[in-house]
Hints:
The protein has 136 residues and is of the alpha+beta class. 31% of the residues lie in helices and 27% in strands. The protein has a six-stranded antiparallel β-sheet with strand order 2-3-4-5-1-6, with helices on both faces. A hairpin with a 2-residue loop joins strand 2 (41-45) and strand 3 (48-52). The longest helix has 13 residues, at 67-79. The termini are close together.
Amino acid sequence: MANTFYSYLAFITPTSDASLIALKNNLETFYDRPVIENKPEILLEDNQINIIFDDEYQLYIAFSEEEYVNEEALEIAQEQQLDWNENTFDKTALEICRKRFEIWGDDDFDMDYFNDSLFVIEQIEQFSDVIIFAIQ
Protein backbone atom coordinates (compact mmCIF):
# COMPACT_ATOMS: atom_id res chain seq x y z
CA MET A 1 0.00 0.00 0.00
CA ALA A 2 1.61 3.24 -1.14
CA ASN A 3 -0.80 5.39 0.85
CA THR A 4 0.83 7.24 3.71
CA PHE A 5 -2.02 8.84 5.66
CA TYR A 6 -3.74 6.72 8.27
CA SER A 7 -2.61 3.45 6.68
CA TYR A 8 -3.43 0.27 8.57
CA LEU A 9 -3.79 -3.41 7.79
CA ALA A 10 -6.36 -5.30 9.86
CA PHE A 11 -5.85 -9.03 9.40
CA ILE A 12 -8.98 -11.12 9.93
CA THR A 13 -8.42 -14.56 11.42
CA PRO A 14 -10.61 -17.50 10.33
CA THR A 15 -12.47 -17.38 13.67
CA SER A 16 -13.26 -13.65 13.44
CA ASP A 17 -16.75 -12.24 13.13
CA ALA A 18 -15.50 -9.29 11.03
CA SER A 19 -17.27 -8.39 7.79
CA LEU A 20 -17.43 -5.32 5.60
CA ILE A 21 -21.22 -5.05 5.92
CA ALA A 22 -21.06 -5.24 9.73
CA LEU A 23 -18.28 -2.65 9.73
CA LYS A 24 -20.35 -0.29 7.58
CA ASN A 25 -23.30 -0.71 9.95
CA ASN A 26 -21.09 -0.08 12.99
CA LEU A 27 -19.62 3.05 11.39
CA GLU A 28 -23.09 4.37 10.53
CA THR A 29 -24.21 3.81 14.12
CA PHE A 30 -21.09 5.53 15.45
CA TYR A 31 -21.43 8.59 13.23
CA ASP A 32 -25.19 8.81 13.77
CA ARG A 33 -24.72 9.84 17.40
CA PRO A 34 -25.98 13.37 18.21
CA VAL A 35 -22.55 14.45 19.52
CA ILE A 36 -21.01 14.03 16.03
CA GLU A 37 -21.29 17.29 14.10
CA ASN A 38 -19.52 16.44 10.83
CA LYS A 39 -21.53 13.37 9.80
CA PRO A 40 -19.95 11.73 6.75
CA GLU A 41 -21.59 9.78 3.98
CA ILE A 42 -20.65 6.11 4.23
CA LEU A 43 -20.76 4.13 0.99
CA LEU A 44 -20.19 0.40 0.47
CA GLU A 45 -19.34 -0.57 -3.08
CA ASP A 46 -17.24 -3.34 -4.63
CA ASN A 47 -15.66 -4.61 -1.39
CA GLN A 48 -14.76 -1.09 -0.22
CA ILE A 49 -16.21 1.40 2.22
CA ASN A 50 -15.68 5.09 1.43
CA ILE A 51 -16.26 7.54 4.26
CA ILE A 52 -16.84 10.94 2.64
CA PHE A 53 -16.86 14.10 4.73
CA ASP A 54 -18.45 17.48 3.85
CA ASP A 55 -15.19 18.91 2.49
CA GLU A 56 -14.74 15.82 0.26
CA TYR A 57 -12.02 14.34 2.49
CA GLN A 58 -12.21 10.53 2.37
CA LEU A 59 -11.16 7.55 4.43
CA TYR A 60 -11.17 4.18 2.70
CA ILE A 61 -11.56 0.63 3.94
CA ALA A 62 -11.04 -2.13 1.39
CA PHE A 63 -11.69 -5.81 2.02
CA SER A 64 -9.14 -8.16 0.46
CA GLU A 65 -8.82 -11.92 0.35
CA GLU A 66 -6.22 -12.22 -2.38
CA GLU A 67 -3.26 -14.62 -2.17
CA TYR A 68 -0.88 -11.82 -1.20
CA VAL A 69 -2.80 -11.29 2.05
CA ASN A 70 -1.48 -14.54 3.51
CA GLU A 71 1.99 -13.96 2.04
CA GLU A 72 2.18 -10.57 3.78
CA ALA A 73 0.72 -12.00 6.99
CA LEU A 74 3.54 -14.57 7.05
CA GLU A 75 6.14 -11.84 6.49
CA ILE A 76 4.71 -9.60 9.21
CA ALA A 77 4.53 -12.51 11.65
CA GLN A 78 8.26 -13.05 11.16
CA GLU A 79 9.28 -9.39 11.23
CA GLN A 80 7.01 -7.67 13.75
CA GLN A 81 6.86 -8.13 17.49
CA LEU A 82 4.07 -5.63 18.26
CA ASP A 83 0.76 -4.63 16.70
CA TRP A 84 -0.38 -1.06 15.88
CA ASN A 85 -0.99 -0.32 19.56
CA GLU A 86 2.40 -1.70 20.63
CA ASN A 87 0.93 -4.89 22.08
CA THR A 88 2.17 -8.40 21.41
CA PHE A 89 -0.03 -10.46 19.09
CA ASP A 90 -0.69 -14.11 18.30
CA LYS A 91 1.79 -14.87 15.52
CA THR A 92 0.24 -18.27 14.85
CA ALA A 93 -3.17 -16.68 14.33
CA LEU A 94 -1.68 -14.07 12.00
CA GLU A 95 0.10 -16.72 9.92
CA ILE A 96 -3.21 -18.31 8.89
CA CYS A 97 -4.96 -15.07 7.93
CA ARG A 98 -6.23 -14.94 4.36
CA LYS A 99 -8.47 -11.86 4.65
CA ARG A 100 -7.95 -8.30 5.80
CA PHE A 101 -9.22 -4.74 5.82
CA GLU A 102 -6.87 -2.21 4.21
CA ILE A 103 -7.43 1.25 5.68
CA TRP A 104 -6.07 4.58 4.39
CA GLY A 105 -7.02 8.19 3.93
CA ASP A 106 -6.50 11.12 1.60
CA ASP A 107 -3.62 13.47 2.36
CA ASP A 108 -4.29 15.27 5.64
CA PHE A 109 -1.26 17.42 6.44
CA ASP A 110 -3.14 19.34 9.16
CA MET A 111 -4.34 16.05 10.71
CA ASP A 112 -7.96 17.21 10.69
CA TYR A 113 -9.14 13.60 10.33
CA PHE A 114 -6.70 11.85 12.65
CA ASN A 115 -9.43 11.19 15.23
CA ASP A 116 -11.72 9.81 12.55
CA SER A 117 -9.01 7.38 11.48
CA LEU A 118 -8.83 6.18 15.08
CA PHE A 119 -12.63 5.89 15.25
CA VAL A 120 -12.44 3.52 12.26
CA ILE A 121 -9.77 1.43 13.98
CA GLU A 122 -11.86 1.34 17.18
CA GLN A 123 -14.80 -0.02 15.21
CA ILE A 124 -12.61 -2.71 13.64
CA GLU A 125 -11.21 -3.64 17.07
CA GLN A 126 -14.74 -4.47 18.22
CA PHE A 127 -14.67 -7.56 16.02
CA SER A 128 -13.20 -10.70 17.49
CA ASP A 129 -9.83 -12.03 16.39
CA VAL A 130 -8.55 -9.11 14.29
CA ILE A 131 -4.85 -8.15 14.30
CA ILE A 132 -4.05 -4.57 13.25
CA PHE A 133 -0.79 -3.01 12.10
CA ALA A 134 0.06 0.58 11.23
CA ILE A 135 1.82 0.82 7.88
CA GLN A 136 4.44 3.50 7.25
